[in-house]
Design a protein that fits this description.
single chain; 347 residues; alpha/beta; Nucleotidyltransferase, domain 5; 2 domains; five-stranded mixed β-sheet; 42% helix; binds 5'-O-[(R)-(carboxyoxy)(hydroxy)phosphoryl]adenosine; binds zinc ion
Length: 347
């Protein structure tokens, strides 16, 4: 495939991108809906799909303009087919399918999680398999053994909240705003992470499974036990944010290293919104460097949801001759399978 156009609408970000030859990012536009959802303190699914509908066509025009190509030059279309919010997924899939139909090009439905794995390839095309992948976002926290592109073995996942979800819930409870990840990341920079101690869920268990709801509850309980004056003490809140973040990061690092031990792999690829976290990036990179592992993080704009990674992943499957039927439906719980071949016509 030469030019693949990707569409991502699995949650609240609307994004359209064009990728050339699988790993050259030609144009990528992401239009977040944070302002629209902020006043509700979270994502409102119905509102998200309406917003996707509003944003998709102008984004498509912008991206083609930025790429400097005509739509007839697009060789294939890829859209996120799951996991995600059904109504949101429907918008992006519908858009890509209609374009594929009108311009007589192939269409492929892409697994959002597999898309995240492809994000670092857009900047470091030399990433070789095998590697351990830590996918850590608002909806997912899991570790995969990636034997080769297209072969994924789930090593472990969260048994309750995703890490990003814990960030968002803690921030909401403490009245810090939404989404919580970037806010707590910022506050933690100035906080003392030794002030409070929070035990990470399943931290001591020799497994690749995670649990974040216990840390979240412990932070909320600590906050509740503060006096009204303490609850308004900025320095104390920074310390609380830093201590919470420390427990999350310690758990993520421990489990990732457990996955390295299990697989014997020497590389780690991190993806998902929480991969934008400065302390997490620093900690994993430093530990990897000291112990001889290669660590890959996408740049910040490719950590969070974007269509470039969907186009890159779509190109991989389309180039292998895989196609999805135009009758393909969104699957809100779509798993990342062991031998992943996108979507066969019989899916
Ligand atoms: O991958 P993503 O854009 O959407 C999902 O698929 O969930 O991730 C969004 C999540 C949110 O929970 C947000 O709070 C978190 O990623 N996040 C962060 C940071 N930036 C975004 N968490 C920690 N530190 C950050 N800097
Ligand atoms: Zn995501």
């Amino acid at each position: 495939m030469t030019f693949v156009l990707g569409v991502e609408t699995s949650c609240d970000d609307t994004s359209v991108a064009v990728v050339e030859n699988g790993n050259r990012l030609v144009a990528n536009h992401v239009s977040g809906q944070l302002d629209a959802h902020r006043r509700f303190g979270g994502i409102v699914p119905e509102g998200a799909s309406r917003k996707h509908l509003e944003l998709l066509l102008p984004l498509l025009d912008d991206v083609l303009h930025l790429a400097g190509i005509d739509i007839t030059q697009i060789d294939g279309y890829a859209a996120t087919a799951g996991p995600g919010l059904t109504g949101s997924l429907l918008m992006g899939m519908c858009c890509a399918k209609v374009l594929a139909l009108v311009y007589d090009r192939p269409f492929i439905g892409v697994n959002h999680l597999e898309g995240h794995l492809f994000a670092p390839r857009l900047e470091q095309p030399d990433i070789q398999t095998p590697f351990v992948s830590l996918l850590v976002s608002g909806g997912h926290t899991s570790l995969y053994a990636v034997k080769e592109w297209g072969h994924y073995r789930l090593l472990g996942k969260t048994r309750d909240d995703a890490a990003g979800e814990a960030y968002d819930k803690v921030a909401k409870y403490l009245g810090l705003g939404w989404p919580g990840g970037p806010i707590i990341d910022e506050m933690a920079q100035e906080g003392n992470s030794d002030r409070f101690f929070f035990r990470g869920g399943l931290e001591e268990e020799a497994s690749c499974d995670f649990s974040f709801s216990g840390i979240k509850t412990a932070v909320v309980r600590t906050f509740k036990n503060l006096s009204a004056r303490e609850q308004k003490d900025t320095a104390l809140l920074h310390d609380l944010a830093a201590s919470f973040q420390e427990a999350v990061i310690r758990t993520l690092v421990k489990k990732t290293w457990h996955a390295l031990l299990l697989t014997g792999y020497k590389q780690v690829v991190v993806g998902g919104g929480v991969a934008a976290n400065r302390a997490l990036r620093e900690r994993i990179k430093k530990k990897g460097e000291n112990e001889g592992y290669r660590i890959f993080f996408p740049s910040l704009s490719l950590c969070t949801d974007n269509a470039a990674m969907i186009a890159a992943c779509g190109d991989f499957h389309l180039s292998r001759g895989e196609r999805s039927p135009l009758t393909l439906e969104p699957d809100p719980r779509l798993p990342l399978g062991p031998t992943h071949t996108a979507f066969s016509p019989f899916h």
